[in-house]
Amino acid sequence: MKIAFIVWRFPVLSEAFILNQITGLIDRGHEVHIHPVNGLQKKNLVKSILLLKNITF
Question: What's the CA angle centered on 40, arms 37 and 41, to 5 degrees?
Fold first, then answer.
């Protein structure tokens, strides 16, 4: 299944639950795309580096 997350900014430490949802969906075999409206935050989360291929600006 193709799933898109449209978020204000990605990743945001205060919204770690979204990161957990995204990685869980990818682990289950879904095609996940992330669309941050306000750009990419600092790459301070290790999981976010693995998701860079899923982020579209």
Answer: 120
Render each residue's pLDDT in the chain as its tens digit; 57 residues. Answer: 999 999 888 777 777 888 889 889 999 999 998 888 887 665 555 455 567 677 765
38's CB contacts (< 8 A; 6+ apart) are 8, 9
Between CA 28 and CA 57, with CA 48 as vertex, the angle to 5 degrees is 100
In the chain, what are the domain boundaries?
2-54
Q: How far apart are the first and last CA of the chain?
A: 21
